[in-house]
Amino acid sequence: MSVYRRGEVWWYKFRFNGQVIRESADTGSKTVAREAERVRRRELEEGLNGIRRQRARLFSLAAREWLDLKRSVLSARSVQIELANLKHLGPHFDRKLIGDIEAADISRYQQRRLAESAAAKTINLEVGTLRAILRKKRLWANVQPDVKMLSAREDVGRAISQDEESRLLAECAGSRSRSLYPAVTVALATGMRYSEIRLLRWKQVELEKHSLTVGDSKTEAGTGRPIPLNDRAYYVLDMWASHFPNREPEHYVFPTEKCGASGNAFTPCVYATDPTTPIGDWKEAWEAAKERA
Hints:
With about 290 residues, the protein is an alpha+beta fold. About 45% of the residues lie in helices and about 15% in strands.
C-alpha cells in the first residue's frame, strides 16, 4: 500500500486480487488518503466475499450525499438545523463505515452528549438526522429495535397572569434596549415567533389597516399569514414608527442599534442605527427584564 501526491491531491495505490488499484482520494490530506485506501481495500474484500452488495461509504460521505439530496426540499432554516446536527454527529461517526454503525454506537453517542450537558430533545433531533441517513442507505432497520430515544420533557409552560404581564411590560419599557418593549408587546398581541418579529420589515406593517403580514416563517403555512393588530399593538407600533421618520419599506422594524448612557438612566442614548440590518437579539435585555419583574 502506498499514497502519493499529484499536484494538490493525494492518490493511493495497492495490489488486490492480482490487480493494481490506483485511485484518487480526492483530498489534500495524506492522513485522509490513507484512510480512504483502507476503506477502499475493505470494500473490495467484502465485495469479493459477497458480504455487501452496495459500495461501502464513510458516514461523512453518506451524510454529505444525503444532505445534498435534501437541500432542494428543505427550507434554509431546516438545512441549518441539519448542518448543526451533523456538526455534533461528525466527531463520533465520520470515520466509521455507515454499514458498521450499530445500536451500541448510537447509545454511546447519546450518553456522551448527555455528559456534555446537551438536552435530551436536542440529542433526539441529532439521532433523528442519523436515522434519516441510515434509512436512505436501507440500514436503519438493522439497528432500530435496539435504539431508544431519550425521554424528553415537553412542558408547554403556563399563561402569565394579567398582573405578571403588566409588571413584565413595565420592566421592558425601562430597559436600555428601547426596542424591547414594542417587540414584547407585538409578541403578546400576535403570538408571532421570535424570528418573525426580529426580521419584520416596515413593508409588512400596515398601520392604517391595523394589520401586519408575516414574512419568512418556520413553516410554509406560517409564511405570509396576515395578523390583525389589537389597539395596544397598533399604538405601540405607531409610536415606534415615529422614531424612524425616514424609514423605507425594506428597512427592518427592529434594526440594530448602539446605545450609550444618558443623563436619565431610563432614557438610553441611541447613537447608531442601521435600518438595513435587523437587531441581533434581545436575550440579555429580556432576561434582565424578566428577573426584575
